[in-house]
Amino acid sequence: MNQPTKIMAIITTKQEKIKGGGVPVFVVEHRESLQNISAILERTLDASAHEVDVDTMIIVAH
Amino acid sequence: MGKYLLPVIIGTLLGFIARIILLRTDFRQYPTYPTGRIIHLSFGFIAAFIGSVAVPSVLDSDWTAVTFLGLAATQFREVRKMERDTLEKVDNKELVKRGQAFIEGMAQAFEGRNYMVMFLALISTLISVYNLWLGIILGFVLSFIIKYSIKGKLLRDMAEVSEGAIRFEGPNLYVGDIHIKNVGLETSRKVILERAVGAIITPKNENGIVTFSNLGQRQAMLHHLANVLGSYLDTGEPDFVPLSKRKMEDGRIALFFLPMEKEFQQIQQVLENVPILDSAIRLPSESNKGGRNK
After folding, report:
1. Domain presence at residue A34
2. Partners of residue A42 in chain B, C-beta under 8 Å
3. What is the dihedral of CA B43, B48, B51, B55, to 10 degrees?
């Protein structure tokens, strides 16, 4: 509850849609690898993957 | 001491028996091991003893001895602290936590039961000084009254449990019409559709609406489910963490949970038997809101 929600990573197929920094951005080729990379990151970071839109996922630590 | 010996023994024994009756090891699984039980039984015995020896001192007008009762009460506050500390430490390693509110409720119950035992021992000793058999009978009657009257409310008294269908709208997970969360991974969505169960808690009145909005109460419901039915969960799987969300318009609570066995009948049964936590109960219907409504 006390832990602030925080974006740990961003995975996207469309790099031009994301600005700014602070977290690593993983640029992937297509939606299939979007899912794969997100799954790996979710498991390793113990943070949930949320779909912002069809091209972008964020890994958020709750 | 001669004429008081028998009543004191009777009072202590009755108090101790009452503690045994009140010590429940049920699906909440605490305390289970003999060591845990011994702690509570010996505390109960001491409480009963203190309660019953207070009687001879009063009858002999030995007032200093009675002040020790006050000292004893401080001792039993320690019971609550001890319980709270233990449970909080253990809770850190639970997959689905009990939550602070539930722990506080349990600790309170342990303290309260000791006072009841003390009181019962006191009463039955006092009576048995005058009439041995009446004291014994009254002691037993009191233990059963205590056993059945200090029970708290259960969820089924305040709300109805119904099944909520699990569905996705894009990445968004819904239980019935209540939004739970955004699930990004397609593999997780598949598992959730396959294994998850949704339950909707509909409060029966405005008291229930406020009571069930309490996060501690909601955590306690999830903990009960996980405890009894087992959960399909491990660390590093944040998508399967059980969640409770509230429909803000009408105060219904949606629970999202992945049990080991997907059978709603069992889930309903468990949920209906979840205790309403002392710290969650609110009674807005009994307050004066300053309006015309009564």
Report:
1. yes
2. 184-185, 238-239
3. -150
Instruction: Extract the tokens encoding B65.
Output: 């001895």
Q: Are B215 and B276 in contact (CB under 8 A)?
A: no
Q: Is A43 on the interface with B (CB under 8 A)?
A: yes
Cβ atoms of residues B96 and B242 within 8 Å: yes
In a domain, A1, yes or no: no
Suggest the residue from B97, B185, B222, B256 to mutate for an interface test with chain A (most A CBs closer than 10 A). Answer: B185
In total, how many domains does chain A have? 1
Computed from CA positions of residues B4, B10, B16, B19, in that sequence, does the dihedral angle turn out positive or negative? negative
Provide the pLDDT confidence category of residue B278 given band limits of 50, 70 and 90: confident
Q: Is residue A52 part of a domain?
A: yes
Q: What average pLDDT does range B212-234 have in this prediction?
A: 90
Closest to B52 in 3D by CA, of B139, B141, B121: B121
**Domain around A46:** 6-15+24-61
Most confident of the ranges A13-27, A39-53, B30-44: A39-53
Q: ipTM score of the complex?
A: 0.85
Distance from the A20 Cα atom to the nearest Cα atom in chain B, whole angstroms: 22
The fraction of chain A above a pLDDT of 70, given in percent, is 95
Average pLDDT, chain B: 87
Higher pLDDT, B260 or A2: B260
**Is the model's pTM score more than 0.80?**
yes
